[in-house]
Write a structure and sequence with these properties.
122 residues; mainly alpha; 3-stranded antiparallel beta sheet
């Protein structure tokens, strides 16, 4: 799924991330489903199946990959309960919760842009 570690593209990404905190941050939350996952987790802790049902169009495999990436980046915390069947819950970490005001600003910007675009396209 990711970029080959030895590729020029990967090296360029690393250099850009080192030089520009904006690009580093964007790369952390890039991915088709990450912002959607954050949006749903900002309300409460959720189980995998709850997230899957809330995010229309995401496959189990893709949700698993995105959650794994988010956990590696310390945006979410995964809690596994020793039960049969296994119970797994996800919640935003402190650093993940710091994304909430940014997500809310993006939401407002998106609404404004969408309204302008739709009104200008008539």
């Amino acid at each position: 799924m990711g970029i080959k570690e030895s590729s020029t593209n990967n090296e360029n990404r690393k250099i850009m991330e080192q030089q520009c905190p904006d690009i580093y941050a964007i790369n952390l939350i890039s991915g088709r489903w990450i912002l959607s996952i954050c949006y749903h987790l900002k309300q409460r802790t959720l189980r995998f199946s709850e997230l899957k049902n809330m995010i229309h169009g995401v496959t189990e495999r893709m949700l698993t990959l995105q959650l794994k990436k988010m956990e590696q980046e310390k945006l979410i915390m995964k809690k596994v309960y020793a039960e049969i069947p296994p119970k797994v819950e996800y919640e935003l970490t402190d650093i993940g919760r710091k994304l909430i005001p940014i997500l809310e600003q993006l939401e407002e910007w998106g609404k404004e842009h969408k309204n302008l675009y739709q009104n200008n396209s008539l």
